[in-house]
Amino acid sequence: MTYPLLRRVQRRIKLHLTGVLLCLLMAACATESSSPTMMNPPLPENPLASCPDSPNCIRQTRLFDLPPDTLFARAQTALDALSASTLSVTPETRRIDAVFTVFLFKDDLALAVEPHKEGAALHIRSASRVGYSDFGVNRRRVERFFRALKNQR
Questions:
Q1: For range 137-153, the mean pLDDT
Q2: What tens digit of pLDDT does each residue of 72-105 get?
Q3: How far is the CA of 135 from the CAs of 56, 130, 132, 138, 141, in angstroms?
Q4: Which residues contact 98 (CB under 8 A, 6 or more apart)?
Q5: pTM value surpassing 0.85
Q6: CA distance linking residue 77 with residue 120, whole number of Å
Q7: Cβ-based neighbour number of residue 150 at 10 Å
Q8: Res 60 pLDDT > 60
Q9: Most-buried pick from 57, 62, 122, 141 (CB within 10 A)?
Q10: Which residues contact 4 (CB under 8 A, 6 or more apart)?
Q11: Cα 126 from Cα 51, distance rounded (Å)
Q12: DSSP for the chain?
């Protein structure tokens, strides 16, 4: 190889190595931000229905260091703020079922709160009734719900 060609190859290798190292560093430093009321121990099994193999459904469990009844009341307030078409609340079982209408399509959201160690576990599932993709609508709805829940004091 000629000297200028060798320098170009060395420069490309340095750039690739720098990019790989930067990606590894970013992956190592990436942490999920959590609210001060969330805990990080292993999650209990989610009792809500599993999601199908399609991107139009999201199902999560999060732990909180709040009493279950307090978390349930806050979850109900947060869901009220999302303006569901219908909202069915069952305080005895700490379960909420909601229906959201997006144009002509209906999405179902189910939420359950149960005691877990010193706090409570919140299980949530949001899914489209029809179709394969919802363009992230259910994921964004769950994110909005958790933001509304976090903003309550």
A1: 93
A2: 999 999 999 998 999 999 999 999 999 999 888 8
A3: 7, 13, 9, 8, 12
A4: 79, 82, 84, 85, 86, 87, 88, 108, 109, 110, 111
A5: no
A6: 17
A7: 15
A8: yes
A9: 122
A10: none
A11: 9
A12: --HHHHHHHHHHHHHHHHHHHHHHHHHHH------TTB--SPPPPP-SPPP-SSTTEEEEEEEESS-HHHHHHHHHHHHHHT--SEEEEETTTTEEEEEEEETTEEEEEEEEEEEETTEEEEEEEEEESSSS--TTHHHHHHHHHHHHHHT--
Give the tens place of pLDDT for each residue, 9-31: 777 777 665 665 555 656 665 54
pLDDT band at residue 34 using 50, 70 and 90 as cut-offs? very low
Residue in 142, 135, 81, 131 with CA at minimum distance from that of residue 106 = 131
CB 83 within 8 A of CB 99: no
CB 106 within 8 A of CB 25: no
Give me the percent of the chain exceeding a pLDDT of 90: 58
Cα 67 from Cα 147, distance rounded (Å) = 19
One-letter identity of residue 47 = P
